[in-house]
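A quick word before the example. In earlier lectures we treated sequence and structure as two separate objects. From today on, think of them as two lines of the same record. Here is Diaminopimelate epimerase written that way.
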Amino acid sequence: MRRHFHKMHGLGNDFVIVDAREQPIDVTPALARSIADRRTGVGCDQLIVLEPSGRADLRMRIWNADGGEVASCGNATRCVVQLTGAATVETDGGLLEGSSLGAEVEVSIGQPRFAWDEIPLAYPTDTDPLPMAWDVLAQPTALSVGNPHLVFFVDDVAEVLLEEIGPSIENDPAFPERINVNFAQASDGGIRLRTWERGVGATLACGTGACATAVAAIRSKRAASPVMVTMPGGSLSISWAPGEAIRMRGTATHVFEGQLDVETLK
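And the structure line, produced from the sequence above:
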């Protein structure tokens, strides 16, 4: 069976998008891993499947490259809004709103959550700062922006050994659903950011990571809204005030489209 797909990216964070609103597709972890494989599949950070929704224009489901399904993805939301023109998108992380602004897309991803059981953590504790440390990295901010994040502020993000420290923090038993790990450097009113994404690894950009980091920076007065967050793949503008939804603005790029041979990839 062949299925049509679109390949898109948001600042290098890349996706295979399958529209299953009229013809369902059964995604298993093995199929998601096969599609995401950059040698024997299409290659992507996340597989995105669009389904019908009873409360939004469509429902978006997300599988990471390791085959695990996750609740939210900011860069993917921008791509889906750009591709379909949807104004509302249902995800397991909440109801998101978006609008296309030419080459850029702005999406609203809801309010950040700081309660330990909403992130979630394995036990009750303070979350801002979180009283934990990994070597010299200590007391990050823990929060959920539809998926779980830690934010460390460091003097120089270029010096962080992302591939070494990222996996150990992601898989720490304190985080029952694993966690995304962000290393941020406040610079000239903006933020430089590198992210270790759970189930993916080091990525060129992470939309929800940029949102989580901007919220942490605004709360700690390291930056003022709107914050320009610059990642290896490019920059996003993030706006937020306490009690309000986070708004993210940036590009969404269509690369190509093609056909998946689902039976071969299973």
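Notice the following. Residues 116 and 123 are 7 Å apart (CA to CA). We will return to this example when we discuss secondary structure assignment.
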